[in-house]
Amino acid sequence: MSTTIIWTIAIISGLGLLLALTLYLVAQRFKVVEDPRIEQVEKAMPGANCGGCGFAGCHAFAESAVKAPNLDNHYCPVGGNETMKQVAGILGFEIKEKAPMVAVVRCNGSCDNRPRINEYDGSLSCKVKASLYSGDTLCAFGCLGCGDCVEACRFGAISMDPATGLPVVDEEKCTACGSCVKACPKGIIELRNKGPRGMRMYVSCVNKDKGPAAKKACAAACIGCGICAKTCTHDAIVVENNVAYIDFAKCKLCRECEAMCPTGAIHGVNFPKPLDKEAVKARVQERQKKAREAAAAAAAEVKPEVKKEVDNG
């Protein structure tokens, strides 16, 4: 009996060693050698795995960055320029620093500006709500108020304001990862340049209805009147689909558009002094008056020349 046990143990041990050796040889034959720089780059990353860079996570970003010929298409919004400098140092690349960005909520539809016309009694999800109907108010473009953006933010940078029913972004916590942008089914959240000392201008509305309908739906809606675009001397504002948009790359932060907007749809934030709307309006009107006078004078000079040509003809 003891001999049987000994032989059994010996055979099992032999089979175990044989299988272990086979597995080892197979593993060596098919092993994938990973570039050691991938691990170095991943360690330099913040580890948020938020997807804000456009990749599935920090490891996927590192793999792509190591294989890329440069870092032009790679940027970590959470780590920012400092993290990218470390990554560039590991890979021997150069990078162009990018201006810091922040999430901006483009909706003026507070409880006061956009009164409810019905009550929603369903799942507290903006995505679900948007799939069922246009919303609780006459505005089919504004915030739905269920807080999907709050749930999506991994950094605690967004909260719902119970007084307005709108999301509020904490600039100090926001990493511009873009998770809230992807989570909003209405597309009212946008990543914009943070601006010098945090100062920036934006149109807080995405309502594409024509003026009367937009105004009826929300007291502070953009009505597409184009006054802001005509006022701007830097060509930073365009009006498309009945709503204005400010190009932050061209905006000079003069705040003239904010002063001239008849509905208060344009917001200027983090400016050191409050806006003196009347003073700005007077300045704009004076400039426009001089422009009209100059145009009239130029037209008057052209007329005699035209008459003279006709007479000579």
The third-level CATH topology of the largest domain is Alpha-Beta Plaits
CATH class of the largest domain: Alpha Beta
In helices, the fraction of residues equals 40-55%
Structural classification? alpha+beta
Features:
2 domains; two-stranded antiparallel sheet; alpha+beta; 42% helix; 3-methyladenine DNA Glycosylase II, Chain A, domain 3; 11% strand; Alpha-Beta Plaits; 313 residues
Would you give an account of this structure?
The strands form four sheets. Strands 1-4 form a two-stranded antiparallel sheet. Helices cover 42% and strands 11% of the residues. The protein is elongated. The protein has two domains: 36-91, 3-methyladenine DNA Glycosylase II, Chain A, domain 3 (Orthogonal Bundle), CATH 1.10.15; 101-269, Alpha-Beta Plaits (2-Layer Sandwich). The protein starts with a helix and ends with a helix. The longest helix has 36 residues, at 277-312. It has helices at 2-30, 36-44, 58-67, 80-91, 126-132, 148-152, 179-183, 211-217, 227-231, 256-260, 277-312, and strands spanning 101-105, 158-161, 166-169, 189-193, 200-203, 237-240, 243-246, 266-269. The mean pLDDT is 91. With 313 residues, the chain is an alpha+beta fold. A hairpin with a 4-residue loop joins strand 2 (158-161) and strand 3 (166-169). The chain has eleven helices and eight strands.
